[in-house]
Structures are given as C-alpha cells and as structure tokens.
C-alpha cells in the first residue's frame, strides 16, 4: 500500500472541502503527490530538495524535467532542504560545490531549460 498516496488523498479532500486550491509539497518521493495531483486536477508545486546527504544534480534534473511535463497543474521547483541540515561551508549534493554556488547554478539552468528569465531568481 502506498501510504503517502492514501494520506495525501485525505489531505487533498480536506483542502478541497475548505476551499484550498493549491499546495506546496517538499517530500523526498514526489511520485505519490504528483499522481494524486494529476487525478484530482489539483494545483501542486513539488519542491526538489538540494542537499548534501541524498540528492545529486542528476536526480534533481531528472525530476525537474519529468514533473514539469507531467500535467498542467503540476510544477517542480528547486529548493534547499533546510539551512540547518545542509552544510553551507562545503560540498552540496555530493559534488564539491558550495551550496549557494550550486543554487546559483541550478537557478541559471532552470532559466535555460524553461527559456524563461523569471523562472527562478538567482540573486
């Protein structure tokens, strides 16, 4: 059983009953939320977690390209996991870049991929 999917379904029903029309989700496995968002035609922003303990630039790029094509109401955006759990003085995403330099690089790549200068503020 996909518990994330089933529990997210309860959350979506609560959102809808209370007039909420969109959600922002930062979870390691966005598959369940994206599937549910697609089924309910519910506006959802999935936030990819840039960190130095799990994700790599390649997995983030793969997710970015996949989820932004999935459904008109689903978007995948980039974000740092949390300042207190991700080092700022060393490698981020296990690739030797400083986290803030990587954020600048990722935002620049997002602008290039989407061909939209306003897609992500880099400064």
Helix content: 40-55%
Class based on secondary structure composition and strand pairing: alpha/beta
Determine the mean pLDDT.
77
How many strands? 5
The Cα radius of gyration reads: 15 Å
Spatial order of strands in the largest sheet? 1-2-3
Question: CATH superfamily, called what?
Answer: Metal-dependent hydrolases
Strand content: 15-25%
Multimeric organization: single chain
CATH topological fold name: TIM Barrel
- Reading off the top of the CATH hierarchy, the class is best stated as Alpha Beta
Q: Report the principal-axis shape.
A: globular
The main β sheet shows up as: 3 strands, parallel
CATH architecture: Alpha-Beta Barrel
Separation, N- and C-terminal Cα atoms: 43 Å
Uncertain regions: pLDDT < 50 for 5+ in a row?
Answer: 91-95
Describe the structure.
With 123 residues, this protein is an alpha/beta fold. It has one domain (3-114): Metal-dependent hydrolases (TIM Barrel), CATH 3.20.20.140. It is 45% helix and 19% strand. It has 4 helices and 5 strands. It has helices spanning 3-17, 31-40, 57-70, 99-114; strands spanning 22-25, 43-50, 74-80, 91-92, 97-98. The chain has a 3-stranded parallel β-sheet with strand order 1-2-3. A two-stranded antiparallel ribbon has the order 4-5. Strand 4 and strand 5 (97-98) form a beta hairpin. Mean pLDDT is 77; it is low at 91-95.
